[in-house]
Amino acid sequence: MQNSKKLVANQYTKKRPWILSTTLMVLASIGGAIGINNLWLNPAANNSGSADGTTGTQTVKGDPIQYRYGVVQLEITATNGKLEKINEIQASTSRGWETAVPLLHDAALQAQNVNFGNISGATFITEAYKQALSNALSKLG
Question: In CATH, which of 3.10.450.50, 3.30.460.10, 2.30.40.10, 3.90.1010.20 is domain 57-138?
Fold first, then answer.
């Protein structure tokens, strides 16, 4: 006896024209989220500056930089384009992160500018320290 049922194409193997549009929407959403995060939620700070071009010995005091857990204010000394000394006038941190300041101090002196890495878990103090250093470096004449 023959099977009288017709073979019906599997509905799950048909072409799915919506996959491309869905994929594009997902990628656009992810791209938009990254853009919003980078441009709006984390605006770029002016983290530029170095002691290059400094002649003689100069000591300048930067402005206090307020951040979430306190204030960072630096006084720097530069001699003939080289950052010689950083004095933390104010460098308050949240409890338990006091050890980050000497690490940032050493990293800044080694880098001779604000282009040094972050300390894991101490992002706020790192960014504030970089802003304070950039502010002080901008005052070198």
Answer: 3.90.1010.20
pLDDT above 70 covers what percent of the chain?
A: 73
Rounded to the nearest 5°, which phi and psi values hold at 62? Answer: -80, 170
Rounded Cα distance between 22 and 16, Å, is 11
Q: How far apart are CA 45 and CA 130, in angstroms?
A: 9
Q: Phi first, then psi: what are they for 106, rounded to 5°?
A: -65, -40
The domain ranges of the chain are: 15-41, 57-138
* Nearest partner of 52 among 114, 103, 104, 105, judged by Cα: 114
pTM of the model as a whole: 0.65
Q: Distance of CA 98 to CAs 15, 28, 37, 121, Å?
A: 60, 41, 28, 12
Task: Please say if the pLDDT value at position 75 is more than 80.
Answer: yes
| Chain center to CA of 66 | 17
